[in-house]
Amino acid sequence: MTNKPIILYILPLLPFSLAVGQTPIQRAEEVIIQAEDRVADSDEVLNSNEAKSGSSGDQVVDLIDFGNQGSGGTSLMQSDETITIDFPDEEIRSVLRNVADLYELNLVIPDTLVGRTSVKLRDVTWEQVFDVVLAPVGYTYLKDENIVKVISREELAMEPTDTRVFLINFARAEDIHKTIEPLVSPEVGGRVQVDVRSNALVITERPSRMEKIQEIIDRLDKPTDQIMIESKFIEASDRDLSNIGINWASLNGYGVQAGPFTQSDTSTYNRSASYGSSNGVNTSNQNNASNGTSLLNQSVVNNLTGLPTNNSSTSTTNIANDVINNRTTTGSSVNNISNGSGFDRASTSVLSADQFQVVMSALKTDTDIKLVSNPTVVTLNNSEATINIGEDYPIPKFTYNEERGTFEISDIEYKSIGINLHVTPQVNSAGFINLDIAPEVSARAGTVPLGGASGTEVPIISTRKTATKITIKDGYTLAIGGLIESTDTKEQSKVPLLGDIPGLGRLFTSNSDSTIRRNLIIFITAKTLNPDGSTYEEVLDPRMLHDMDIRAEDIPGYEMSDRERELLEAVEQYRNQVNDIENQMALQTKLGALKDLEARREREREAREIAGETDDRPFILRRR
User: What are the strands, taking DSSP E only, across 498-616?
Assistant: First the structure.
């Protein structure tokens, strides 16, 4: 539909001119009539269907014929459309009436309203026109349903109060109370009360203020956005990742780089050696990462490479305590990872849904890649979601006993070891989600002696964690890589029996040092859910349902289409028919076998009677 401007051409002697622009009126036809004589005086309002002439018979004006204005008699202007006016010197009553006619408003003007005005406004609503014109003369207007009333401010101040109950559906009445309370006037008896039981506001105020209060409550009382946070913690070696051509230490090559964020990879020695007190001694290294942006232009996994971001971190090794491939671990060390390869830099990237599936498909091709965890949680907007998968490990706290000269356990605190994820989402109106993310993966890495005669040991907790604040598109996935853990081990291989011979065993024994580097990749997908209810397709990954052999009809609340219902009924009917036929055939077979058995027993009885023998045995039909 084409929007054509509506222009009213008024003769020079008319006291005002009016121009309306940007109106959605159909079938607008311009009827141009040349003016031959000027009109001496005219205060008539130009309507939309005919040109009204003055006293002179040949007097005419130029105007727009608005046609039928729609079959429903709709107004020429919508209430939210803007107009441009120019009144050089006009009665205030005439200005209000002309604007009201244009919007087809029901207008009530008191006799006490007098005065003239000169006003020129562009692109304003009718409410703005009324405010500008009425304010200088001490008047205002009230909207009572579909009627607009013009009243003086003195009359407004004497308006009696009214009490109404506003039910709050989604928000908390206590929260909205803080916003509404400053809007009421205590000097005229206005007040706001909260009814906790019904989650409602009881407001006493002048009726003229109730509409504004209702409008604000409607804006505040809206369903809170719900966000689904799906995370994947994947661990793989550098060798595994290089085999599929992915440089996870430089994930910024995948898309929009996220940051700034702080990345920390620490080993914590939970020990206390203070006199008369207990505290923890932590060794950590935290660095701020730079912020940058790069465009994502590849979707093939082998092409998803890029330069590492300017982030630095310190990684700490776990203490190896396993026996790998019949090779005994004889020693371990805690060392920093070298910066030579550049793989120890935590980087981030944003992937679309398609790109994320390509990456996950590539990861599934390598059987050595380990999916550590795949938790999913739903939270409200601006509310923190916490995922904790692991165990609460007891950490003793020690104090020094001066009398005995030893360390003693003074308290026990518990540390969550495993996978911890803290996410706070915030949805904006542009279709993006702000995420405040703090993932952490920790594990026990051995013990170290506390010192002293008691020989007390304290645990080592190896932790890989990062913290970042980013903005991603709704439904996109944030990838965090470069959280590398390096384990140095000393391995010994020997020939059975011969390697155990004292002295000569060294000839049949070999020692080697090895370093195992494991890269932790974290994928976090954020997606808003419909507060009115989301389908299972919006929440659950179809591939996950396929792997679990779950069909759509197995989902609670699933509604079949008419075609699916017809097919299901046809299948059930066929199954019943087949079962009936099979049952009848089985019954006929059993009846035939029973008749054969009875006939054989009858022949045996007759043979015994001929031989003079009696058969007192009971007849028993045994099931075979």
Answer: 509-529
Q: What pLDDT, in 10s, does the model give residues 453-502? A: 566 777 888 888 888 888 888 888 888 877 777 777 777 787 787 778 88
Question: Residue 419 pairs with which residues in a beta bridge?
Answer: 389, 441
In percent, the amount of the chain with pLDDT more than 90 equals 12
**Helix or strand holding residue 126 (H, E):** helix 126-134
pTM for this structure?
A: 0.48
Q: What's the token pair of residue 46?
A: 């130009």
475-to-301, 331, 381, 417, 478 alpha-carbon distances in Å: 20, 47, 15, 30, 10
- The encoded tokens of residue 119 equal 């006003």
- pLDDT band for 265, please (50, 70, 90 cuts): very low
β-bridge partners, 165: 202
Q: Rounded to an integer, what distance in angstroms lies between the CA atom of residue 42 and that of residue 491?
A: 107
Start-to-end CA span in the chain (Å): 83
Name the band, by pLDDT with cuts 50, 70 and 90, for residue 49: very low
Cβ neighbors of 494 (< 8 A, separation 6 or more) are 500, 505, 508, 509, 510
Question: d(Cα 384, Cα 282) in Å, to the nearest integer?
Answer: 26
Q: Cα(409)–Cα(501) distance, rounded to whole angstroms?
A: 45
- The SS3 call for residue 427 is strand
Q: What pLDDT shows up at residue 77?
A: 64
Task: Say if residues 321 and 329 touch (Cβ distance below 8 Å).
Answer: yes
Angle between helical axes of 173-180 and 207-220 (0-180°, round to 10): 130
